[in-house]
Amino acid sequence: MEITSELIKQLRDKSGAGMMDCKRALEASAGNVEAAIEYLRKKGAAVGAKRADRAAKEGVIVTRVSADGTLGVVVEVNCETDFVGRSDDFTHFAGLVAEVVARHRPATLEALHGHTSNAGKSIAEHMNDLLAKVDIATMAHGLEGRSPFLDHPLVELALRLPSRLKRRGGEGKLVLRRAVADLLPAEILGRPKRGFGIPVSAWLRGELREMSEDVLFSASARRRPFFEAGAVRALFDAHVSGRADHGGRLWLMLMLELWCARFLG
Asked: Is 210 inside a domain boundary?
């Protein structure tokens, strides 16, 4: 049977798998979509089982001594690869953990997550910062890193579930939505996907308001042929007054003008 682009799209819509994975699954299943879904499920389970056997044998060991000299701390933070273990972000995070342990002496991991470092963030927030960077790095290479669902037994369970429990028509994450339906309000359950955002709208109304106004309405910005100064002024005034949210547009224009000022003069 010929594997057409329409057939691949049909399988992608049902499975969420990549295009080449869908093509190979259809080839192995003689064009049968349901058989291809089962092929993908088994392949995913095999990959999950293989990765579950991998140990986090790399990492870093950090030592700290409490301010009064009465407590010494040795913290080991593990990861799978030496590449990650040697990175500045990872070693900095390990140092923050050691500092918090020396200062607060938490009795459990849960208590450690809640304590705040000298940087003003909890250990849990520092972990989320690392996960945001993981998301950027994996997406740059066409990979999906799903947090906080990082526990391999949970991944293995999800891979064993039949497709009918995961997706119905255009609706995905059926099991997850049902599992937390009594814990989250409806507007959260039905909210579209979001990435890791930054509060540009608040920045442009607050600490970056004066700087962004100076840049966007500078003489050099007015000379450029990209935007009409009057239209930019209307967007800016509406945004800072709170009448509308044009943070995304203004941020892009601000970045463009800063780039132009640096490289074009």
From this structure: yes
Low-confidence ranges of the chain (pLDDT < 50): 45, 48-49, 51-52
Distance CA 40, CA 25 (A): 6
With H, G, I as helix, E, B as strand and everything else as coil, classify residue 74. Answer: strand
Q: What is the CATH number of the domain that holds 9?
A: 1.10.8.10
**In which domain, by residue range, is 80 found?**
58-139
Which residues 6+ apart lie within 8 Å of 231 measured at CB?
Answer: none
Q: What is the pLDDT of residue 45?
A: 46
Alpha helices (runs of H) in the chain, residue ranges in sequence order: 5-15, 19-28, 33-52, 82-85, 88-104, 109-114, 123-140, 152-160, 174-179, 186-189, 200-205, 209-216, 219-223, 229-240, 247-263
Last residue of a domain, one of 91, 111, 139: 139
Q: How many domains does the chain have?
A: 3
Beta-bridge partners for 61: 76
Taken in order 226, 231, 235, 236, the sign of the CA dihedral is positive
- Residue 215's pLDDT is 94
Lookup: tokens for 7: 């057939």
pLDDT at 249: 94
Residue 19 belongs to a domain: yes
Residue among 206, 196, 187 nearest 247 (CA): 206
In a domain, 177, yes or no: no
Select from 122, 139, 156 the last residue of a domain: 139
pLDDT of residue 83: 66
Spatial distance between the Cα atoms of 200 and 66, rounded to a whole number of angstroms: 39
Structure tokens at 59: 């990492």
- The token duo for 12 is 């992608």
